[in-house]
Amino acid sequence: MIALTEPARSAIRKAIQGAGQQVAGLRLMVQSGGCAGLKYGMALELEAQPDDAVVAFGDVTVLIDPDSGAHLTGATVDFVDGLEGAGFVFDNPNAKAACGCGKSFC
After folding, report:
1. β-strand pairing of 85-91 with 76-82
2. Under DSSP, is residue 17 helix (H, G, I), strand (E, B) or coil?
3. What pLDDT score was predicted for residue 82?
4. What's the average model confidence in pLDDT over 25-40?
């Protein structure tokens, strides 16, 4: 379904450890909005929903709802830390176009 690079796994692991409570995993989602029509979202979730795809990468769990899954199939999520800042980057073969911010696509 999706792939996570080791830097992405490490960043997610740190976020989960810093949550201060038990979480089911990190939700990856696609929502309406952004410059190009769709945008990526992420949130720590306390529990998975019954229709979620639950994808385990060792000790890191990612939750994806069915609607978002259709947009994320084949995507690779990376975490970069550079001069322009740090953050998650999506390489998504389903995106027809992306905006300059890298957070929005269509």
Report:
1. antiparallel
2. helix
3. 84
4. 86
> 68 by DSSP, 3-state: which?
helix
Cα separation of 44 and 80, whole Å? 19
Q: What CA–CA distance (Å, rounded) separates 7 from 81?
A: 9
The pLDDT confidence band at residue 64, using thresholds 50, 70 and 90, is very high
**Mean pLDDT (the chain, rounded):** 90
Q: Which of 26, 18, 4, 1 is nearest to 79 (CA)?
A: 4
d(CA 84, CA 18): 24
Q: In DSSP terms, which residues pair with 78 in a beta bridge?
A: 89
CB-CB contact of 1 with 38 (8 Å):
no
Residues paired with 101 in a beta bridge:
none
Please give the biggest Cα pair distance in the chain. 40
DSSP-derived pairing of the beta strands 53-57 and 3-4 = unpaired
Domains of the chain plus CATH, in order, are 3-105 (2.60.300.12)
Q: Does an H or E element contain 10, and which? A: helix 6-17
